[in-house]
Amino acid sequence: MYERIGAPVLVALGANLPFGGESPAETLRQALQAIAKEGLTVLAVSPFYATPCFPAGSGPDYVNAAAVLAGNEESDATSLLAILHAVENQFGRVRNKRWGMRTLDLDLLALGDSVMPDPATQDSWRLLPAEAQVRATPDQLILPHPRLQDRAFVLVPLAAVAPDWVHPRTGASVAEMLAALPEADRAAVKPL
User: What is the pTM assigned to this prediction?
Assistant: First the structure.
């Protein structure tokens, strides 16, 4: 397992349900403030984007963004994920359905060039066929996020803050992964 303390932390943010009377966009703004209060430094935040619900037809459209964070000396993937989950909980996140509607979703996309838990496991989850993705859920943290390269709602915002980050297993940059997606997928992600 490779964990680089001080490496840039890439995070995807999303919400499609209001929380506490606030819109999903306001929830994302407040979540970024909460992340900073937890001791992480917010280095860059993408514009916010309106994106179709994934999978299509499963709920209201999302507001998505991406951020580059910096941790501290104690930051490792496990502690970073715990912070993100704690912030999700502050905003009413309920984990009762995979890919379901949510008040806040904070996905740890990458920690520098870390590959976790090991290259073979990361490759296996990244290359999992689409029909198997619906049925299988990892029981451990996989970094980089195994669906990162497949999702315009992640890559469009990420390209605004980390276009040159390179996937340590594929060798493709965020900009290259985004360019490889179908134009219709990219066009569906619209700036707010």
Answer: 0.91
